[in-house]
Amino acid sequence: RSSYSCCYFVLPCCFFDFHGKYSRRQSKKTQYREYLDFVAQVGFVCGFHVEEDCLRIPSTKRVCLIGKNRTYPSTECALIDKQITQYINNRQTCAVVMCDRRVGFNHKDHSDGVCKETDSELPENETDTAGTIWMPGFQPREKVEQIRNCASLPRDFVDDVVLNVANLLLNATPQKSCSNIHGGNMNTWNQGESLSLKEVAEHLNKETLKRLKSEYGGLQTLLKNNHQVFEVLNGRVHIRDWRKEKPSTKMKPEVKRRLSAEAFKTRLCWFFIHHPDGCSLPSESCPYAHGTEELR
């Protein structure tokens, strides 16, 4: 219903109808195949030549359906729009009373599953307004989807939260000794304490929390995004100790090994700049730059 010139691509995944969970009607087919046929049927009812293809993606749900061409001339838009209204209304009715269990569908006869219904059976206002609404209560998604995974937050705001949370963990308990994995010697690099997400949130001001609540995952997402500094495990926040990070066991081609040995560093080391004890790793072992002179 967007426009006559509209084309579409759809990758069916979860089994849903217009008004709720999709109800199976063909026991001889797999659930996935039956649902693909239903989605193709929707395209046919909307006046498209429906094509099917299989994508090269690592997923079990990789069959896509494409509508590039119409089955009718533009002069018949009003008639097809009325047909779409009937189909949507009928799917809603079938979902409640299961009126037709013969919704078998194959590519030879796309109209098998279209329940017959006359104009007189439709509510008068729904027939009249078919060209102006999609369906009662339907709200289309905004053209520009808002990014809400903390990635679009201002950099200075994120840096401020990271610094506040890190200082909270570092000052939670007195500095304690920890074993250096190289040689077993004792040193005093402060690893800080671990706190629950709730405890961390209680120490942040209301304005910061309000801003984070508008993001998906809120505080936890922001901390996980800053994995250089934090490790979030089982709802608890820790300062990441890079000495404990296991090196990758995956063998790389010789060229890549040579490049990684030259240590291309594109970001500054947060610990080198902000941690009271500096970075726990020497410059040559740290994946981040100890000073701007090391940046690529």
Automatic annotation (TrEMBL):
A single GO molecular function term of this UniProt record: tRNA(Ser) (uridine(44)-2'-O-)-methyltransferase activity
Keyword set includes tRNA processing: yes
Catalytic activity: uridine(44) in tRNA(Ser) + S-adenosyl-L-methionine = 2'-O-methyluridine(44) in tRNA(Ser) + S-adenosyl-L-homocysteine + H(+)
Function: Adenosyl-L-methionine (AdoMet)-dependent tRNA (uracil-O(2)-)-methyltransferase.
Subcellular localization(s) per the UniProt record: Cytoplasm
Location of the C3H1-type domain: 263-293
Primary subcellular site in the record, as a coarse category: cytoplasm
GO biological process: tRNA methylation
Zn finger residue spans: C3H1-type: 263-293
Top-level taxon: Eukaryota
Name by which UniProt lists this protein: tRNA (uracil-O(2)-)-methyltransferase
Protein family per UniProt: Belongs to the TRM44 family.
Cellular component per GO, a single term: cytoplasm
Gene3D superfamilies with a match to the protein in the record: Zinc finger, CCCH-type
Organism of derivation: Spheniscus mendiculus (Galapagos penguin)
Keyword tRNA processing: yes
Entry EC number(s): 2.1.1.211
Keywords noted in UniProt: Cytoplasm, Metal-binding, Methyltransferase, S-adenosyl-L-methionine, Transferase, tRNA processing, Zinc, Zinc-finger
